[in-house]
């Protein structure tokens, strides 16, 4: 059975949620390993030589790890860590490492996310902000969508006065192949609420993420 005979499932996330309800994988790990073996042969390699013998297994395992976000949900990662608080000043978690994979080439996207919000009665456990970034990054992504998904998740969970997300990342598909521009960085942002409406709030956020912390 292959994914293509499930036209009702138009994203990997839907595929995964269908897996968990059906309790049986649509594509087996053996089939995935066979596909990697085929790739190796297509590349002119001998998949039976010693160094490559276990490569299909390793590649499948590595790809499953790099896309493990498909198996995670906001509910589970939050573990209830949303608290009622009077705080109404900006909360910023910056320099969150991002390791994602671009959906066009399945090559690494490496960078940092800076995430801020202004609470309106509710705050979230700080680590959960990094966990939200991690869940969406560990999928096949485009940087723009990753940025929006993080912003929308926080907006939905906290209904804060505003959310700001900036991601700075370098795409290996632009570095190691294709246009080959190793120094290039892509910066994307998503501004919600006061960050989108009020230039001063946005400016404060941008200044905070520009400033170099002195404990580095
Ligand atoms: N907008 C956006 N584009 C991305 C991202 N990751 C990769 N891409 C781009 O997706 C595009 C795919 O273009 P194609 O022409 O179909 O693929 P390609 O022949 O491999 O393109 P080149 O990389 O230019 O060699 C490329 O321009 C990539 O740089 C991302 O996160 N966001
Ligand atoms: Zn790419």
From TrEMBL:
PANTHER family from the UniProt entry: GTP CYCLOHYDROLASE 1, GTP CYCLOHYDROLASE I
Domain of life: Bacteria
Species per Swiss-Prot/TrEMBL record: Anabaena cylindrica (strain ATCC 27899 / PCC 7122)
EC annotation from Swiss-Prot or TrEMBL: 3.5.4.16
Family, per entry: Belongs to the GTP cyclohydrolase I family.
Gene Ontology molecular function, alphabetical: GTP binding; GTP cyclohydrolase I activity; zinc ion binding
Subunit structure: Homopolymer.
Binding site for Zn(2+): 102, 105, 173
GO biological process, one term: tetrahydrobiopterin biosynthetic process
Coiled-coil ranges from the UniProt annotation: none
Key words of the record: GTP-binding, Hydrolase, Metal-binding, Nucleotide-binding, One-carbon metabolism, Zinc
Pathway: Cofactor biosynthesis; 7,8-dihydroneopterin triphosphate biosynthesis; 7,8-dihydroneopterin triphosphate from GTP: step 1/1
Name of protein: GTP cyclohydrolase 1
Residues in GTP cyclohydrolase I domain copies: 33-210
Catalytic reaction equation(s): GTP + H2O = 7,8-dihydroneopterin 3'-triphosphate + formate + H(+)
Matching Pfam families: GTP_cyclohydroI
Gene3D superfamilies: 1.10.286.10, 3.30.1130.10
GO cellular component assignments: cytoplasm
């Amino acid at each position: 059975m292959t994914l293509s005979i499930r036209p009702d499932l138009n994203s990997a996330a839907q595929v995964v949620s269908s897996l968990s309800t059906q309790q049986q994988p649509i594509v087996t790990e053996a089939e995935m390993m066979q596909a990697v073996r085929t790739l190796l042969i297509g590349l002119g390699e001998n998949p039976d030589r010693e160094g490559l013998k276990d490569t299909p297994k390793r590649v499948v395992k590595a790809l499953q790890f790099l896309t493990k976000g498909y198996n995670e949900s906001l509910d589970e990662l939050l573990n209830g860590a949303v608290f009622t608080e009077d705080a109404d000043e900006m909360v910023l978690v910056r320099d969150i490492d991002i390791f994602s994979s671009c959906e066009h080439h399945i090559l690494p996207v490496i960078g940092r996310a800076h995430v801020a919000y202004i609470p309106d009665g509710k705050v979230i456990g700080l680590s959960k902000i990094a966990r939200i970034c991690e869940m969406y990054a560990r999928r096949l992504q485009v940087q723009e969508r990753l940025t929006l998904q993080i912003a929308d998740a926080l907006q939905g969970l906290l209904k804060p006065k505003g959310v700001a997300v900036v991601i700075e990342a370098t795409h290996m598909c632009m570095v190691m192949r294709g246009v080959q521009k190793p120094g290039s960085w892509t910066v994307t942002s998503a501004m919600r609420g006061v960050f989108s409406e009020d230039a001063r709030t946005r400016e404060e956020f941008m200044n905070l993420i520009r400033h170099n912390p002195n404990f580095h």
